[in-house]
Amino acid sequence: MTMQTWIDGLFAGAVYALVALGLTVTFQPTRVMNFAQGEALVLGAAVGYQAISLGRLSWPVALLLAVVLGALMGVAMERMTMLPMRLSGSRFGWIVAALAVALIAQSLFTLKYSDVDALRPPPFVEGGLEVGGGRIAWQVSLTIGIALAVTAGYDAFLRRTLYGRALRAASHSPDTAVLMGVPVQRIVVLSFVVSTAITALVGLLAAPVLFIAPTAGLMFTIKGFTAAVIGGVGSPRGALAGGLIVGLLDSVVRAEINATAGNLVVFGLLALILVVFPAGLFGKPMEAH
């Protein structure tokens, strides 16, 4: 096992952690798992490819575009997921709605980039650093650093701001929160906006290094969902821990055996965690229901 295997695992884990964080952000006030979350990551990669590779725009402009378009995608996802659920009255209508949104987005990306294998813009920072026989690119270091900073920042934001208290109130009991004057519907929309903006950002940052195909959204959603459940759905710290666990375990097993074994071990760990810790490693017992 080489140092490069661990570096690759940390990088993949940071990406999965931010996808898991995005899932957590929307789950807290809605109790809905956005199965179209990975499409926001593909959107970020597509913005990078379109703006930087084809449009010759700068990275700061691409970063701004990714965040803005990711936020707009969040508004659209909220309308297309939550509204059908409320109108149908079905407790599980969101599952079909979210999967429909994912398939629609995937189809649009496929039509737009049918001749592109991977949405890969040039890196923001060229070069890298030799560490213990492995090479960590500056783009990889930047992605991992931003993943840690975003997770820590959102965790502090959730604990110390008025919005965070309102979100936690809506998460605990939406009906009671409404009676207390909390604008629950606005909180729900903001949660989708924040989650997709975060995921689009990591998609743009990871695209120069990670293979992100136009059809890869659902795969990243599954890995992010696995990370969120292992770490504890609803916990930002759990999203980070779960993402790093999934990324490192997958990378190590892939290097030692093969890709199929990597997926088998990751999902086997998920099953074990659900048996031993139904709420995940950092989740509260109520999150298990």
Structure commentary:
- By secondary structure, this protein is mainly alpha-helical.
- 74% of the residues lie in helices and 3% in strands.
- It has eleven helices and two strands, in the order ααααββααααααα.
- The chain has helices spanning 3-30, 37-54, 59-88, 93-112, 138-160, 162-172, 174-179, 184-206, 217-231, 236-256, 259-276; strands spanning 128-131, 134-137.
- A two-stranded antiparallel ribbon has the order 1-2.
- Helix 2 crosses helix 8 and helix 2 (37-54) packs across helix 9 (217-231).
- The chain starts with a helix and ends in a 13-residue tail after the last helix.
- The model has no long low-confidence stretch (mean pLDDT 87).
